[in-house]
Structures are given as C-alpha cells and as structure tokens.
C-alpha cells in the first residue's frame, strides 16, 4: 500500500482533489504541482499524512474485517450465511478503516488545497511544515475538527467495501459456472477481484 501510494496513488488523489476545487485541466494541475520543485512537487502532502494513511489503510481494514468475521463465527452466521457474512465483514472492515483514515485524510487534504504549504521549500521542509497542521487545527478549531465529515466518510467506506466484496463474490460465482465447490486459479481470483473492484467503483 505504501509503495502504491508513493508512486501513483497520492498523485491520482491530488489530481482528483484539485480537479474538484479548480477549473484547471489534469495537465494544468500537474504543471502547477511540478512548477516550483520539479517531480518532487508531486509528493507535497504525502509526508507525513499520505504516508501514515498508506500504512494504516490496510491494517485498519484487516483488523475490522477480522473482528467482524470473529463475531460472525461466534454467532454461527458464517456457517448459516457464509457469503453474506463475508460481504458484511468486508463492510465492517471498511467502516473501521474510515474511522482511522478520516482525520489523516482531512489533514492531507488541507495540505493539498492550501497553496502556502507548497509555495516554497523542498519536500522535507514542506513535510515538516505539514506535520504541524494537526496542532494548528486543534488549537484553532478544537479536537473535534479532525473528525469533520467523518460520519459520511465512514458510511462511504462501509458501502465501498460492502459492494466490493459483494461484486467479487458475484463475479467468482459466475467464473465457477454454477459449481460452488470449484476451485479458481490465483490468476482467475485476481481477475475476479479486479472486476469486482471496478464494478464497486462504478456503483
């Protein structure tokens, strides 16, 4: 997750956020990003918040998914409704991911959308300056401000992951050709996951 966010994920997210808050084209946004610092400018906002987000992204989801599956197992739901339990556990993992990521994403977004953080200095000086934004927000707006928009974000992550797990299950079922006991090769499983994730994003 860290390597993906560092090499391309963060760049895509900055493009999305800037596109939503400006009238520039994607190429224009990229030119602004690299104008002062070259390609290193693409990493503005990644350190420290994007890096923290990348590290906690998978762990928080995995913890929520695992805890939810444990609850399903203790109630026998995993035996009675195996596919439904897996889909719901995915959604619960996404919800916990939303709780953990919400304040980090807010801080990263503030850095990305505030030109003063990117106007001067290199990557590390920008990172040092960015690391202070959390304290500034708490001092100015109070600790609760870090969770601004969190209920909607948590709900979004719940449905993101619920639909992802649901579509993957449906695509895998179709790939098995009606034989629920059929074993899929790793390549087919990857393809089903990719297709399920794509359908989830569209939904």
- Report on the biggest sheet: none
Count of strand segments: 0
Q: Segments where pLDDT lies below 50 for 5+ residues?
A: none
Q: What amount of the residues lies in strands?
A: under 5%
Structural Rg: 20 Å
Order of helices and strands: HHHHHHHHH
Number of distinct helices: 9
Q: Give the helix/strand class.
A: mainly alpha
**What percent of residues adopt helix (DSSP H or I)?**
over 70%
Description:
This protein has 203 residues and is mostly helical. It is built from nine helices and no strands. It has helices at 2-21, 26-35, 46-75, 77-80, 82-113, 123-130, 133-141, 150-175, 186-202. The longest helix has 32 residues, at 82-113. 31% of the residues are buried. The mean pLDDT is 90.
Concise structural overview:
The chain contains nine helices and no strands. With 203 residues, the protein is mainly alpha-helical.
Task: Write the topology of this structure.
Layout: H1 2-21, H2 26-35, H3 46-75, H4 77-80, H5 82-113, H6 123-130, H7 133-141, H8 150-175, H9 186-202
Helix pairs in contact: 1-3, 3-5, 3-6, 5-8, 8-9
